[in-house]
Amino acid sequence: MKKLTIAFLAVLSAIVLASCASEPTALEKALSDSVVAGNPGLEKVEISSVVLRDSVCVRQELARRVRLFETKLSAEKKRNSTPKQIAAVQHVSDILEALQEYSLRMESSSDSTIYYIYDFEVAGKMSDGAAVPRTEMSATVDCSGNVLRLFTPGSNVYSGMGIALPGYRELLESLHASE
Q: Phi first, then psi: what are they for 17, rounded to 5°?
């Protein structure tokens, strides 16, 4: 009886370990799909060592956006006072004002997470059989598990992430349309 119990536990352990190791997680699948989509000719991809680096909430991303446009406004003000420069200063001022209004509208969800940053390793195989060596990458992933952007080491993973803010793209488009 003791041998049967040990054999049963060994088989059960092997099944559990095999099932855990063989199926990629939804996140690994999304990362893999994004890497393949961005690299024509890449046939097979293996994602490993996925580690959560950061989670970003509405408040943090809005503060980053405001700092970005304040820096841009300061730079625009230092240039010559041509009609084009005056229009650029006004445009950036309008964006900052719109961001302040947006911030007030989003106040109730300011601590809501809008995206995550993951670091991972990827290796693969090209369709011609050439091996792709293991490479470190980072990705921003929204709360639904969709990969927003992929980054190579040394890249600013926060760059361009205003797109994760609900309604941010539409806000900028409406300001560009009113020019």
A: -65, -40
